[in-house]
Specification:
Length: about 250
């Protein structure tokens, strides 16, 4: 079933879905719903003032943020190249240059290349970290400069230890995709386990507020539905998605 995104989007925004975008939304709509619920819970901690919310890797989720939090300032950080667009970012979605900051998180390796952003109350890095060849320790050090003290960072990423990956390895197959030839949209360089993410967070001085294993990628066919059913029977660490909510001390 095609996810109904229209009711959650601004009235003046139309979605032009090519085949890549169509597939992306079918797979990720449940994840978007869960992610938005987590942002709303954090937002409730600050009822008396407007916030700055930074979305890393602009996508249709950015529009959901704008619709859900009209009194807050939604900032964006990512690559400004057209070639970096994939199914997550429709061709007709323009990036407001006033609120968009162009920065390649791989440049977190070099402090001299860090850019200065207004400190945000909530930073969202969803389905981004696996696309970086730079250590999360360096990326998190940079992101600390983008977050207010007492502010939050939400990370979502696929679970490297998901059931399908374990089965593939048992069969002698590599469960991870090959690096693509498009340098601006190279695919997944490295996927992580929950323990790895938490270790990186703690070593860089973040407080771990919540961690969750959830199979929030929608199945596209019956075998995938059966697979999701299995992940909900097996231990939580076999599920497909990881979400970690961190606080800057």
């Amino acid at each position: 079933m095609k996810p109904n995104l229209k009711e959650n989007l601004p009235d003046n925004f139309s979605i032009e879905l090519n085949s890549d975008a169509e597939t992306y939304y079918k797979v990720h709509s449940k994840r978007y719903e869960f992610l938005l619920s987590q942002v709303k819970k954090i937002r409730n901690h600050f009822p008396q003032r407007s916030l700055r919310i930074l979305d890393i890797g602009p996508s249709i989720f950015t529009k959901l943020l704008e619709k859900s939090f009209p009194d807050d300032l939604i900032l964006m950080l990512g690559l400004g190249h057209e070639s970096s667009r994939g199914g997550h970012l429709p061709l007709n979605m323009e990036l407001d240059p006033v609120r968009f900051y162009s920065f390649n998180l791989n440049n977190s390796q070099v402090k001299e290349k860090w850019i200065k952003l207004p400190e945000s109350d909530i930073v969202i890095m969803a389905e981004v970290i696996e696309h970086l060849y730079t250590s999360p320790a360096l990326v998190l050090e940079f992101l600390k400069t983008c977050i207010k003290s007492g502010g939050y960072l939400i990370i979502q990423t696929p679970n490297a230890a998901a059931l399908r990956n374990r089965i593939a390895l048992l069969l002698g197959r590599n469960p991870f995709e090959m690096i693509r030839t498009n340098a601006d949209n190279p695919g997944h360089f490295r996927e992580y386990t929950m323990k790895e993410l938490i270790n990186f967070a703690e070593k860089t001085g973040f407080e771990v507020c919540r961690s969750a294993y959830i199979s929030y990628f929608n199945p596209r066919n019956r075998p995938e539905k059966f697979y999701i059913f299995l992940t909900n029977i097996f231990p939580k660490s076999f599920r497909t998605g990881l979400t970690v909510i961190l606080m800057k001390k």
